[in-house]
Design a protein that fits this description.
By secondary structure, the chain is mainly alpha-helical. About 65% of the residues lie in helices and about 0% in strands. Helix 1 runs antiparallel to helix 2 (about 35-70). The N and C termini lie far apart (about 45 Å). Bound molecules: flavin-adenine dinucleotide.
Length: about 120
């Protein structure tokens, strides 16, 4: 995993959520098998591949040019204009924070605590 975007921990948390959703019941019953593990992998593989593709694009199109340092790095005019629009401006941060395949913990796993 590249460090571009600092998304490693985000993916790790989403991996943990997918794992908890899929494996809690089999683990409680003590009947975990490779099929269950393969389910976790197939659920998370696309998310990881997709972010790695984006990281490669950023590496090759932005960071490489910035590291060469022979000319100032400027975003294209169209991108600069787009990134001034509130809805669009938040997209990159949202994508980095939650990814393209956000995960939520299954409601079955949320233990109800008595109110104090
Ligand atoms: C220097 C550094 C800086 C980083 N900075 C950031 C950052 O700013 N932002 C960010 O988002 N991410 C950052 N990361 C990346 C982030 O830490 C990792 O992507 C994330 O911790 C991966 O979590 P994980 O649970 O998938 O794996 P890990 O955190 O690697 O956990 C795997 C665990 O499994 C254990 N293990 C492995 N094999 C076995 C086995 N056979 N049996 C039992 N246990 C096993 C290992 O001992 C380890 O404890 C950084 C990483 C490094 C190294």
């Amino acid at each position: 995993m590249s460090s571009i975007g600092g998304v490693g921990i985000n993916l790790a948390i989403q991996d943990a959520i997918a794992t908890a959703n899929l494996l809690t019941e089999p683990l409680k019953k003590g009947c975990i098998n490779t099929h269950a593990l393969a389910q976790v992998q197939s659920q998370r593989q696309e998310a990881v591949r997709s972010i790695q593709t984006d990281q490669s694009l950023i590496q090759n199109r932005i960071i490489k040019r910035a590291m060469r340092g022979d000319q100032p790095l400027r975003l294209r005019m169209i991108l600069r204009l787009l990134l001034r629009r509130p809805g669009v401006r938040d997209c990159p941060a949202r994508m980095l924070a939650f990814g393209k395949h956000p995960k939520r913990i299954s409601t079955k796993l949320i233990v109800a605590h008595p109110s104090t």
